[in-house]
Amino acid sequence: MSEIDDSKMPLLDHLIELRSRLLWSFLALAIAFGISIYFARPIFGFLVQPLLASGQDKLIYTAIFEAFFVEIKVAFFAAAFFSFPVFATQLWRFVAPGLYAKEKRAFLPFLLATPVLFTIGAAMAYYMAIPVALNYLLGFGGNVGGVEQQALPGVDNYLNFVMKFIFGFGISFLLPVLLMLLEKAGIITLAQLKGGRRYAIVGAFAIAAVLTPPDVVSQLLLAIPLCILYELAIIAIWLTHRGKTKTAPEVSETVAE
């Protein structure tokens, strides 16, 4: 029992502690939002680069307040992204006192890996998936039965399109963290993960079909990494079990001596 904090807090103290953590988290979000709203236009300028690279140099807005609310959305998304480390830290500081030392060592790597994997997924969406999807979708322009068909995307429509890709890919890349946490919690086992490969592949393509446009290339850009991440989670869990197996005999020999 020495591995866990000896202090016991009544329910009211827990609620006060939770309120404090939430206040710090939302304060960080508010500060990040205040900074992001100032840089909202440059941030949106960065997000429209794939559209510009695809040959489309015009965005329109038909509602009077549409462009204004787009900047608000951009600032909020940016604030949520940049304030996530504060949210994660406050969550850790709230949960950590109730964990054993070995549980802390097991949980902390997952917490640290979350923003890294999300960023990798978001970067893949921005630099690979979005350009491919735009080239496909904007290819429907041209002469159709004597009528010139031209793409005139709206600012809000384009922002929703980009955010769907970025957050979809970012969250999907958290699959290894989710699977390893479920395994450590005893909800699933390594054998079940190995036996469920075929279902995982079907699920990966189903997720890709929902989060990406109906072109095959965009779906493959998400489905294939999801399958690879599934396999990496299995390998990581297997290595963890192997390490425990090697450690167990050494501990037994030490106790025997």
The average pLDDT value, as a whole number, equals 83
Q: What number of structural domains do the residues give?
A: 1
Tell me the Rg in angstroms.
23 Å
Profile the largest sheet. Answer: 2 strands, antiparallel
Q: What separation lies between the terminal Cα atoms?
A: 24 Å
Helix content: over 70%
What is the element string, with H for helices and E for strands? HHHHHHEEHHHHH
Number of strands: 2
| Number of helical stretches of at least 4 residues | 11
List the uncertain runs: 1-6
The structural class is mainly alpha
GO cellular component, one term: TAT protein transport complex
Membrane topology: Multi-pass membrane protein
InterPro entries: TatC
Pfam families: TatC
Spell out the blueprint of helices and strands.
Blueprint: H1 11-38, H2 40-47, H3 49-53, H4 66-82, H5 84-95, H6 101-137, E1 142-144, E2 147-149, H7 155-172, H8 175-184, H9 190-195, H10 197-211, H11 216-256
Antiparallel strand pairs: 1-2
Helix pairs in contact: 1-4, 1-5, 2-4, 4-7, 6-7, 6-11, 8-11, 10-11
Folded structure, characterized:
- The chain has 257 residues and is mainly alpha-helical.
- The protein has eleven helices and two strands.
- The chain has a two-stranded antiparallel sheet with strand order 1-2.
- Helix 6 packs across helix 7 (155-172) and helix 6 (101-137) packs antiparallel against helix 11 (216-256).
- The chain is flat, with a radius of gyration of 23 Å.
- The chain starts with 10 loop residues before the first helix and ends with a helix.
